[in-house]
Amino acid sequence: MDPLRRSPSPCSPQASSPESPPCEMLGYVGIEAVLDQLKIKAMKMGFEFNIMVVGQSGLGKSTMVNTLFKSKMWKSTPPGLGGPTPQTLQLHSVTHVIEENGVKLKLTVTDTPGFGDQINNDKCWDPILGYINEKYEQYLQEELLITRQRHIPDSRVHCCVYFVPPTGHCLRPLDIEFLQRLCRTVNVVPVIARADSLTIEEREAFRRRIQHNLKTHSIEVYPQKCFDEDVNDRILNSRIRDRIPFAVVGADREHMVNGRCVLGRKTKWGIIEVENMAHCEFPLLRDLLIRSHLQDLKDITHNVHYENYRVIRLNQSHVLPRGPGWVNLAPAPPCQPSSPGLTKVCRWAQDNSDEDS
Amino acid sequence: MATNTAYMSSPVSDNEQKKKGNTRSLTMSGHVGFESLPDQLVNRSIQQGFCFNILCVGESGIGKSTLIDTLFNTNFEDHESSHFYPHVRLKAQTYDLQESDVRLKLTIVNTVGFGDQINKEESYQPIVDYIDAQFEAYLQEELKIQRSLFNYHDSRIHVCLYFISPTGHSLKTLDLLTMKSLDSKVNIIPVIAKADAISKTELQKFKIKLMSELVSNGVQIYQFPTDDETIAKINASMNGQLPFAVVGSMDEVKVGNKMVKARQYPWGVVQVENENHCDFVKLREMLICTNMEDLRDQTHTRHYELYRRCRLEEMGFADTGPESKPRSLQETYEAKRHEFYGERQRKEEEMKQVFVQRVKEKEAVLKEAERELQAKFEHLKRVHQEEKMKLEEKRRLLEEEIIAFSKKKATSEIYQNQPYAAPGGNPRRDKDRKKEPGYRFEFLCFDVRARAASGGQKDAEERVEHGRPL
User: Fold this and answer.
1) pLDDT of residue B56
2) Nearest residue in chain A measured CA to CA from B38
3) Is A81 exposed, middle or buried (0-12, 13-18, 19+ CB in 10 A)?
4) pLDDT above 80 for B167
């Protein structure tokens, strides 16, 4: 994946209206200097990215985050020595500012320890959905203020990485339930965790079965097919979609292999190199999340998921017929608003009122 | 693996520092790769395209269209506008320009008829209204429940080029007034048009005079931003050279061995792109190459936010009510809703009352009319009756007369018939009778009438028939 590939977005290029004829310029004007201006502005302002990792404990979520950003975000809990498993699902969020070549990134990682760990995992997705919606709500409130800030701080979850345990069979009911609900609210990227316990053939078979499961239950993971803008995007994204879910291995220790220092896991039968495409697909995940699709993740969150949330929210406590300038807002109800389907044109909530909590 | 040691000690902005106390900076032990983020952003913008709207304010014939043509190196439109418009109108035209892979949707708004009227009191109002209308359209779109902001064709004015005529003395009152009313709504860049009419020394003095007048009157013109190191120096120096003295021309003249854009005079050639001759290159540089993004940014974050705040406050909303902050929006709405409903209810009652009142009145009037009509009808009927009786009376009299007359006639006929019975009577009379049917006919007619009066119509008809063959 080349890093400079055009990131697709739900924003369609503006079609020229009949009154805007294309004009030929007879010489150099300097319009393309606006790109540099954009870059300067972006570098000055810095970027924000919020990622959430969801999965059962012991699947290597914290290690994966550390590997992705090559730093110690968290202390990854050594197996067996972790504290008592939390009784309820808690969400831990940690923020860091990292810089690379003048580009500042404010990264927020949210972990979900205790997910799927209880005996009865019914409705374990509720706290997560509640957290995501709470972030949307914060942004909405900021947006509705009379005196707004110059730059509204964006704490909405841009991407949710879902860790599928490497059973080798198919998606479990918990996975399916969770993915169904979450795909409508946030961009979800499923990955096969701890893939070093599967051989290459097993991985492929597992992947195919998961893809089949996703299709049967009409779960649209990122990159969503309906947001492909043009042919290039579709080609590129189908290549990605073909490999989803990525089989990844996380490691934050370095070892010497053939004189090089690589990140990897050392076992009795060899060293699994994390960044080696032959060993695992971690580079694919990293490229998708950071190098090529980060802006796109943010765009889809802002233009699609957030707008969907906003529509539902603004229609909720609403008795009067609406006028053009009226925005009715009631305090957020204790239950989550039922989210609509994932379409560009937002469907109303009535066909989803039977599902969801 | 090489270690990257770049890390900052302070986070990005103060806001974030206040809100997230646990923001720490982190060192990374390897190359992660998010330095391509600005490129991703740029790629997305390229795909989306850019949008830029320029408003040109100035008198007719001062060179607005020519300057825009020269700035963007195209021929946008050819015809000149007339000087005889009764009001100032704004004409907007949108063009699609493309340079390498950057697509720009350029909208030029021209004031037509500005400064042409005899009475210029209302000249600046249409301009202010237009700018407000664009803000309003954007606000409406933003407040909609189902909105599509990323698809929205942004028509807000990003920069206003104000053309000052090169009198060499000072600002005109109209200019001052217009700029004062526009400075809080749009970024104003004043330019001295047709700068080839002023000499160098006069130009310097003119510029100083203009700037001092603007400052003393409190007009805020757009200052090029000086907070970023890469462009701070050049922007600062440009700020000192405002307003730019420009010359526009699309005609090409051969100078030396090149064709340059210039205006040719008998005494020389004014080259548009020569920095010694005019400030056109500086204007183009500042407007397009260096600060286009900042102009759009300022429009959105400063002017639009100000408009939005004023508008929402006008509609009655406030952020901090007497109670806690986030609730007040809801409360304002509830209060407004009740008020609105109460008002509506009251108005409805009022209207009902008025309606009932009116109906009653109308009914009364109608009843009155009916009564009058009835009376009239009675009266007429009576009159008619009387007439009828009179006529009956007359008829009776007439009939009596007729009967009397017919009696007389009968008796006179008896007397007449006697001379007829004598032999050798009056053959002449017979002949006369035959020859003069008219007389006889008349007689018969009279007869007919007499008969009709007494009711014997059949006889009369027979008589008439008999009379005819004569």
Assistant:
1) 92
2) A39
3) exposed
4) yes
B364 touches chain A (CB under 8 A): no
CB B213 within 8 A of CB B175: no
Residues of A in contact with B288 (CB under 8 A): 29-31, 33-34
Q: Phi/psi at A226 (nearest 5 deg)? A: -75, -10
Percentage above 70 pLDDT, chain B: 80
Any idea what DSSP says for residue B40?
H
Q: How far is B212 from chain A (nearest CA, A)?
A: 31
Quick check: B245 and B280 in contact, CB under 8 A? no
- In tens, the pLDDT along B126-161 reads 899 999 999 999 998 888 878 888 778 888 999 999
Nearest to B25 among A19, A31, A96 (CB): A96
Tokens of B120: 């210029």
- Contact status of B15 with chain A (Cβ, < 8 Å): yes
Would you state the pLDDT for residue A278? 87
pTM: 0.70
Give tens-digit pLDDT for A137-146.
Answer: 999 888 888 8
- Long-range contacts at A126-129 (CB < 8 A, ≥ 24 apart): A126/A336, A126/A357, A127/A88, A127/A89, A127/A90, A127/A91, A128/A52, A128/A54, A128/A89, A128/A91, A128/A182, A129/A181, A129/A182, A129/A185, A129/A336
* Nearest CA-CA distance, residue A50 and chain B, Å: 13
How many contacts, defined by CB atoms under 8 Å, are there between A and B? 278
* pLDDT band at residue B431 using 50, 70 and 90 as cut-offs: low
Chain B residues touching residue A31 (CB < 8 angstroms): 50, 97, 99, 102, 104, 288, 292
Please give the backbone phi and psi of residue A176, each rounded to the nearest 5 degrees, phi first.
-65, -45
Q: Greater confidence, B326 or B238?
A: B238
Rounded Cα distance, B426 and B419, in Å: 9
**Whether pLDDT at B39 is above 80:** yes
> What is the average per-residue pLDDT within A165-191?
90
Place of tokens 């994390």: A274
B100·A149 Cβ contact <8 A = no
Region B395-411: mean pLDDT is: 94
Inspect the interface and report whether the beta carbons of B15 and A314 lie closer than 8 Å.
no
Q: Which of A66-80, B70-84, B166-180 has the lowest mean pLDDT?
A: A66-80
Q: How far is B82 from chain A (nearest CA, A)?
A: 23
Tell if the CB–CB gap between B29 and A13 is shorter than 8 Å: no
Question: Is residue A306 very low, low, confident or very high in pLDDT (cuts 50, 70, 90)?
Answer: very high
CB of B69 closer than 8 Å to CB of A35: no
Instruction: Say if the Cβ atoms of A13 and B103 lie within 8 Å.
Output: yes
Residue type for position B210: L
- Say if the Cβ atoms of B102 and A32 lie within 8 Å: yes
Look at residues A235, A144, A245, A242 and name the one whose alpha carbon lies nearest to residue A194: A245
Chain A contact probe: residue of B37, B44, B301 with most A CBs at under 10 A: B37
- What DSSP character marks residue B195? G
Q: How far apart are CA A34 and CA B95, in angstroms?
A: 17
CB A28 within 8 A of CB A86: no
Tokens representing residue A258 in the block: 């053939």
Alpha-carbon distance B252 to nearest alpha carbon in chain A (angstroms) = 12
Phi and psi based region of residue A298 (left: phi greater than 0; alpha: psi -120 to 50; beta: remaining): alpha
Contacts of B330 in chain A (CB under 8 A): 329-331
In our burial notation (b when 16+ CB lie closer than 10 A, e otherwise), range B117-147 reads beebeebbebbeebbeebbbebbebebbbee
Nearest-by-Cβ selection for A23 from B29, B47, B95: B95
Terminal CA-CA length for chain B: 151
Q: Distances from the Cα of B43 to the Cαs of A35, B36, B149, in angstroms?
A: 9, 10, 19
Distance CA B24, CA B339 (A): 50
Is B144 an 8 Å CB contact of chain A?
yes
